[in-house]
Amino acid sequence: MELRIQTHLFFALWACMLFLWGCGTYQVDDDTEATESPGPYTMDVALSNATLFTSLYPLQLYLFDSKGAIVWNEEVQAQTEWPVLSQPTGEYVLTVISGLSSEDYLPPMSLNAKQLLTFSQGNCADTPLVIGKNVVKLKNDVKISMNLSYAVAALYLSFGGVPDDAIAVEARISPVSSGITLEGNWNNDGQFASVPCQKVRGIWKAGPVYVFPSESSQTHLSLNVKTASGETVYGYFFSYPLEAGKPYRFVSTGDGEVSLEGNGQIEGWTPEVSEEFPFENMTPEEDWEHPKPDVPDGDGNSGGEEEENGGNHNETDNDTDVMVAEVLPESETIWGPFFVWKVEPLSSGEVEATLVSPRQWLLKKAEALSVCEAYEVDGISGWRTFTTAEAKAFRDQYDDTIESLNEMLQENGVDTFNKYDCRYLCNDFNSTFCFYNTKILDSGETVDYALRLVKKVRVEKAK
């Protein structure tokens, strides 16, 4: 009898343990599911270094999802008016920007993290752009401490020694970026900033003006000096790139004068860079490169020139692709992502179009070849430089209308051309041309050149 009771007790205890063990497993699973909430969760934002910046408000606030789509956009007038951001679980990019109320900058037509914010004119502004960015992995309510920084470099320009008969002086600084994405990345397109100078007691001055930096190993300053008899472009190189958050004071002197004044630490900026040099050290543009000796060849061309239809394998039509499209391209229009320079009809339903790449680069000759070989856009590869004949024709066509062309290109998101500040590679990288004179010069190995690619395509109208 006692053995039977013990046996029943053993099985009762074992069954109870199994029951409790089973109940524990179920409860753990239930608790885990309860903690996996989709939200929404709030983001409490604080600006950690707002006191370093004057006139910070209004701020533009952008919140993008992991695909770059906008999920929140609001203008904040003061710290006390910050909205309560609330979103479901996910990864977001939060960007705040100060300076947009100045109208020196143009927001993109559509709000996306990759869209570009650009300058209203001249690739420079009178108001600095301040930006802050945080990547937020939202799993619960969070507090965000956002650090702000300048997205621009500041330029202070002062030019003495300029010829007395100058009636206008414009400074051009390159390379700079023409825009910055709404998530805070420069587009590094190697453009130039155009800065008009004012004459003050015999010195031509400008600044502070603000520019977006662009990747480079050096900075080029040029002065376009206009007189009653014409204009001359002078150039000077600095062996470093521009950096965001740093002021630069570029000063030229004449007759032994010293013009540096009041330079030092500016609150919120890193220590400034000051450069002083005699104006006579600025090199006239015809000496920037090394043209061939100006000795006529048998056809009457100078050594720096090439025959328009010879000596350049790019003159062949081997680069022509065949495409089919609903609408045939037309000359001097935007077709897809491309600027169509010219169109030659082949039949009632077929044309040959010369396309110009939407991108432009500023780089050395050796780098340009690899960029050209790798470049592909909208499924089209096999791009090349302008031939010598094309370079002359393009320059002559747009010499006086390059500004209006650039306006059209900029409106359509295509990189603009530099009229004054650089030379373009042509003739299979062996020569260069520009829009400020008619010379075709040899390309050098150490100079930064603009690269703009072209491509011929044969387009058939879809039936």
Summary of the model, kept short:
14% of the residues lie in helices and 38% in strands.
Description:
With 463 residues, the protein is mainly beta. 14% of the residues lie in helices and 38% in strands. It contains 4 helices and 31 strands. The protein has helices spanning 2-35, 365-374, 388-398, 402-411; strands at 41-47, 59-64, 70-76, 85-87, 90-98, 105-106, 116-119, 130-138, 142-146, 148-150, 153-159, 168-177, 179-181, 191-196, 198-200, 203-213, 219-227, 230-238, 247-253, 273-278, 283-284, 321-325, 333-335, 338-347, 350-356, 361-364, 424-426, 431-433, 441-442, 448-451, 454-461. Strands 11, 12, 14, 15, 16, 17, 18, 19, 20 and 21 form a 10-stranded mixed β-sheet that branches. 31% of the residues are buried. Mean pLDDT is 80; it is low at 1-34 and 287-318.
Give keywords:
mainly beta; 4 helices; 14% helix; five-stranded antiparallel beta sheet; flat
Weakly predicted, low-confidence segments: 1-34, 287-318
What does the overall shape look like? Answer: flat
Total helical elements: 4
Q: Report the count of strand segments.
A: 31
Strand content: 35-45%
Main sheet specs: 10 strands, mixed
Distance between the termini: 101 Å
Radius of gyration: 31 Å
Average residue pLDDT:
80
Helical coverage, percent range: 10-25%
Q: Pairing-aware structural class of the strands and helices?
A: mainly beta
